């Protein structure tokens, strides 16, 4: 018997189909609600609204589960590097050794930017936020690759995917070099993704640069745990923009803009700024926990809380273990990490946080690792974008492959003035 929901409107009863996912999540399909009842649903912030059926990433917020194409994040993080993880998300399966080598090889061939793109960096002020540079330069890629903008041409989509994956680290590293007035350091095709990014970021022409394998391991983990997270704000933005058949570069640039917000990907920068503020204020975490609980105070604990996770964010647990291990290996004590651990301990025992099910999220500890690697705070969200790129691409592809694809165009409930007589200027 078909699973249905019955909606009673006045003296009418409407039955609506119920969709059940592979993990037994259930949803009322309201795609015919307006045509059958004249009514729509209303759900500010889409708290209760599924935008799409997707096969890429599964989250269970109550259990603290995250799986990429069915594989638990803990296993992917333990067994893959970021490029292998990206292949899994984008193409749907773990690659064979040959597929993975071909993917790595194709990305290495596209790491350079067109030399004319370097002039973009001269146009930005020195203190330009690198997220502004990232979204601008990514959008501008569409002007240099006008041969590969058609979302309906698989070959053009594939070469654009390779260009995006390969060039984002170069664009990011160049924005950092610009901000510190150092010469741009070009990619090297003999290096793997994370090694290459670190040398583009930190190498200088005047002396050799030694790549730290611990930094590479930590960076791979951070990129892997950021790689996808189903219908989050920035991914939904990429889908929304892509649904108009805008090219993939424009869609990803829009996602970068959404991620920049401090309630989303910008939280990693905001979190470390908050921890630095607490440290400078004598380390009184109780004071800041009380501020976060005060309804009249807009202050929030950045890096805490999540729309979906009402249990531990599995990514935060993985990142915290790596924090401990990296700082121990470096024989380095970061007072910010100590503040973060103390803040977590106090908050998780506080009835307010327990009742509202607020736990550390992916952004709470990631900044500690970025600091240990030497990544400047303004680049934290840029690294989130580098990690999330394969997820954005996977969702953009899935959206275009959907037989039921339509332009995203939500409805609304109008609450403004009803019709009224126009008042000429000389009578106002
Ligand atoms: C990411 O969606 C994703 O998957 C995102 C992400 C991804 O991988 O793409 O996981 C990445 O964006 C993680 C979140 C990073 N943002 C932050 O750390 C910023 C601080 N957190 C919040 O602002 C908030 O928790 C959100 C934005 C993450 C979630 O917001 P919701 O789901 O809209 O929840 P809410 O704001 O309605 O909060 C529910 C209640 C509120 O209290 P009441 O109005 O019910 O009394 O909890 C309170 C909030 O005031 N609350 C907090 C809090 N977060 C929520 N109170 C204090 N400190 C906080 N951090």
Give a short summary of the structure.
This protein is mostly helical.
Blueprint of the fold:
Elements: E1 4-9, E2 12-20, E3 26-28, H1 33-37, E4 57-60, E5 65-68, E6 71-72, H2 73-79, H3 82-91, H4 97-108, H5 118-123, H6 130-144, H7 154-180, H8 193-202, H9 213-225, H10 233-242, H11 248-259, H12 267-280, H13 285-293, H14 314-329, H15 335-347, H16 351-355, H17 362-373, H18 380-401
Antiparallel strand pairs: 1-2, 2-3, 4-5, 5-6
Helix pairs in contact: 2-9, 3-18, 4-7, 6-7, 6-11, 7-8, 7-18, 9-14, 9-17, 9-18, 10-11, 10-18, 11-18, 12-15, 12-17, 14-17
This protein binds s-citryldethia Coenzyme A (SDX).
Q: Could you explain how this protein is built, in words?
A:
This protein starts with a strand and ends in a 27-residue tail after the last helix. It has a three-stranded antiparallel β-sheet. A three-stranded antiparallel β-sheet has the order 4-5-6. The protein is mainly α. The chain is built from 18 helices and six strands. The structure holds s-citryldethia Coenzyme A. S-citryldethia Coenzyme A is lined by residues 45, 229, 232-233, 263-265, 267, 292, 300-308, 356, 358, 361-363.
């Amino acid at each position: 018997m078909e699973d249905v929901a019955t909606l009673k409107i006045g003296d009418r009863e409407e039955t609506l189909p119920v969709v059940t996912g592979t993990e037994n999540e259930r949803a009322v399909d309201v795609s015919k609600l307006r045509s059958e009842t004249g009514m729509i649903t209303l759900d500010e912030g889409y708290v209760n609204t599924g935008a799409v059926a997707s096969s890429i990433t599964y989250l269970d917020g109550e259990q603290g589960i995250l799986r990429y194409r069915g594989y638990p994040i803990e296993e992917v993080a333990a067994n893959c590097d970021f490029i292998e993880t990206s292949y899994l998300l984008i193409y749907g399966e773990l690659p064979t050794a040959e597929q993975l080598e071909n993917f790595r090889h194709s990305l290495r061939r596209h790491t350079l930017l067109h030399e004319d793109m370097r002039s973009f960096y001269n146009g930005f002020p020195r203190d330009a936020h690198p997220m502004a540079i990232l979204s601008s330069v990514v959008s501008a890629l569409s002007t240099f690759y006008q041969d590969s903008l058609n979302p309906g041409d698989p070959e053009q989509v594939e070469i654009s995917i390779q260009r995006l994956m390969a060039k984002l680290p170069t664009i990011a590293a160049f924005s950092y070099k610009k901000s510190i007035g150092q010469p741009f350091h070009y990619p090297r095709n003999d290096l793997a993704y994370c090694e290459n990014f670190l040398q583009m970021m930190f190498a200088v022409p005047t002396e050799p640069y030694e790549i730290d394998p611990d930094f590479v391991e930590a960076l791979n983990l951070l990129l892997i745990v950021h790689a996808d997270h189903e219908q989050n704000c920035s991914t939904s933005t990429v889908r929304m923009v892509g649904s108009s058949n805008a090219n993939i570069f424009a869609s990803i640039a829009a996602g970068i803009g959404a991620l920049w917000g401090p309630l989303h990907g910008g939280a990693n920068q905001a979190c470390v700024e908050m921890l630095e503020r607490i440290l400078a204020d004598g380390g009184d975490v109780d004071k800041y926990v009380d501020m976060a609980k005060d309804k009249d105070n807009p202050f929030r604990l950045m890096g805490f809380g999540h729309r979906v996770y009402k249990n531990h964010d599995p990514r935060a647990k993985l990142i915290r273990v790596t924090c401990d291990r990296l700082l121990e290996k470096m024989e380095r004590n970061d007072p910010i990490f100590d503040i973060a651990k103390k803040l977590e301990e106090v908050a998780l025992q506080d009835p307010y946080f327990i009742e509202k099910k607020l736990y550390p999220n992916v952004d709470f500890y990631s900044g500690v690792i970025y600091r240990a690697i030497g990544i400047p705070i303004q680049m934290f969200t840029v690294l989130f974008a580098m990690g999330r790129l394969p997820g954005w691409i996977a969702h953009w592809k899935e959206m275009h492959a959907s037989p039921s694809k339509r332009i995203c165009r939500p409805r609304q409930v109008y609450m403004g003035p009803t019709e009224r007589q126009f008042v000429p200027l000389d009578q106002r």
